[in-house]
# Entry
Amino acid sequence: MDFSLRPKIWRACLRNIKFLYHVSYLEVSQRYCLNWYKQRWHMPRFTIVIPTHNRYDKLRNLLKSIDFTKPVGLDEIIVVDDSSRKVEIENEFPCLNIHRIVSSERLFISRAKNLGWRKANSDIIFFIDDDNIVNHRTFVPIIDKLAKSKCIGALVPAVLYKNRPDLVWVYATPLAKDRWSHVLIGRNKPRNPKIENRFLDTDALANSSVVKRSVLELTNGFEEKLSVNSSADLCLRIKKMGFKVYAYTGSFIYHDVTPPSGFGWWAEHGAQDPLRVNNELKDWILLMRFLHFKDNLFVFHAMLRSMRFVLPNMLVYIFKGKRPHYLVKNVITGYLDGFSRALKFNYNRYNLSDAWLVTE
# Structure
């Protein structure tokens, strides 16, 4: 072999390697760009609706996360604001298309959400409570799944703690067999890869959800008699219309609340907002009546089961609440008003099957 040819051979090999590298790089780049354009132009358009009340710091963090994520397909953000002190927060985010609906009276969450989705222009509505943040895993997977399915009416993402993203706030919330509570799948446990990237049955829409506008129009949206906690009612009415509702654990949202630690973490919201305490209790009583309309001992059963969460919450309100006496008063009036409303109701609101209607 002529050793003088070795440098030429090596140079030729290097040229071929560089050529193959550039071809591979171009192919990868073209594939990435093609996928990006497909996602950009074929991603369904959607609107984010955010109800807020006196939590501008939380709302600001949520909007910052949306601005940083730059969700594909986002048409507009509608903020429904019934705060006592108004801040034109949309001016802080010029790159986001924010419309703010301002109310001088307290709307509460259900009415605020209804005002928001009815003002939206998109066919898909993403409801997000103001005490959450989002990232790149929040929007694309779940909206794509909803848009491609004719039988699914609504989806909810898996919820993790913002300050402990390794810890689950909740994956899904199906009703318990006795229908007196929801089963909180994964609550306060480490993330479980075995139940992620799946559809899980759920009977509530937790603190964020994505719903087809056509489904909201069919159901007339959230029940405003349930001022705060109306998501379970909407979920069951969507199922009554023949649509499926799932938690999709391939998308994630991050709840900006205190992770389990110390006394009172479970009653953080109520301790700061007495009127919310009153309405949440009334909502729970009315929802339970919807689910147990044949129960002749409803008041006794509801009082007994409500003690599981009312008593621990009362301790937090007394020792950590801003106005403990007012909070306790709102719990008492919540019971009285809730039962007076609930006992007027006696029909099968959700078309529950006979197997569910076993009298306790």
User: Anything to note?
Assistant: The longest helix spans residues 6-42. The CA atoms of residues 110 and 222 lie 6 Å apart.
